[in-house]
Amino acid sequence: MDLNNQVVVVTGGASGIGRALCEKFAAAGARVAVADLNLQPATQVAEQINGIAVAANVGLEEDIQALVRETEERLGPIDIFVSNAGVAFGDGPGWMAASGSNDNWMTSWNVNVMAHVFAARALVPDMIKRGGGYLVNVASGAGLLCQLGDAAYSTTKTAAVGFAESLAITHGDDNIKVSVVCPLYVATAMTEGGRGVTGQDTMMTAEEAADSVLAGMADERFMIQPHAELATYVERKGADYDRWIAGMRRMRQGMLEQHPDYAYKV
Ligand SMILES: NC(=O)c1ccc[n+]([C@@H]2O[C@H](COP(=O)([O-])OP(=O)(O)OC[C@H]3O[C@@H](n4cnc5c(N)ncnc54)[C@H](O)[C@@H]3O)[C@@H](O)[C@H]2O)c1
Question: Which in 20, 65, 192, 234 has the greatest CB count within 10 A?
Fold first, then answer.
């Protein structure tokens, strides 16, 4: 797809995958709005790529509406909106599945899921009037499998995949293109010192993940999986759910042997 002069918003654009996406879109000629909770690093990225920086908490609908308004006033109608901002907190003490605080669950829900709903609500009607548009929602491999040690992340990323499916099915005939991005591990601030299954899966760079997103968008592919091995894991899960749960339990046990301090005690 020709990105030249396209108006692109990337949320969470100040860091990691979002930052790499901003740089790649700009290099391809797009005019980019770098949206982030943190304005200062977003401004640094925007200055480097001749884009604009917008402060927004994507978990708040009024911030998404203001982000859309400001971008359209300054750059013109939005062609592509990438909902990339995401949060991961890890389970609470003892690593029990429901141990995360309600605050962390609700922030995960708002940022990882509702932000995608707010963006679609703010953009889809106008995109339909203009003849189409592109929504790219960054979920995670955790939305197709499970992130050990983070039930809120796994649950909300699964919901993000579900919402992207609804968007693609409902608005495909309106020429709204939808991609959902499901990476495994990417070396960013989010995975630094993380206690996932890092090391067992290929850890790629944010630039490699961003390249994969642009390649998937060029093909207008709904499901973008930067890590090739994910498809095999998803296939195995689909073929035999109980076997998959048993395998994940074994993997969890292996992690607990390495980190006995993560185990809960009742
Ligand atoms: N790093 C990985 O291994 C990995 C794997 C799969 C999926 N993902 C997903 O990729 C996306 C980007 O993650 P990353 O690894 O680049 O993380 P990161 O922590 O480097 O970047 C996330 C950015 O989002 C911003 N952000 C957080 N909450 C926000 C909010 N409420 N409003 C606006 N901005 C907010 C942060 O300030 C930060 O700049 C996330 O959705 C994440 O869940 C990451």
Answer: 20
Cα-to-centroid distance, 248 and ligand 1 (Å):
25
CB 130 within 8 A of CB 109: no
pLDDT digits (tens, 9 = 90+) for 139-179: 999 999 999 999 999 999 999 999 999 999 999 999 999 99
Residue-range domains of the chain with CATH: 7-232 (3.40.50.720)
- Please tell me the pTM assigned to this model: 0.96
Phi, psi of 200 (to 5 degrees): -90, -20
Residue 227 DSSP code: S
Mutate to test the pocket of ligand 1, among 9, 11, 17, 108 (most ligand atoms within 8 A of CB): 17
Q: What pLDDT digit, counting tens, does each position of 13-48 carry?
A: 999 999 999 999 999 999 999 999 999 999 999 999
Task: Give the distance (Å) from ligand 1 centre to CA of residue 20.
Answer: 12
Alpha carbon distance 227, 252 (integer Å):
21
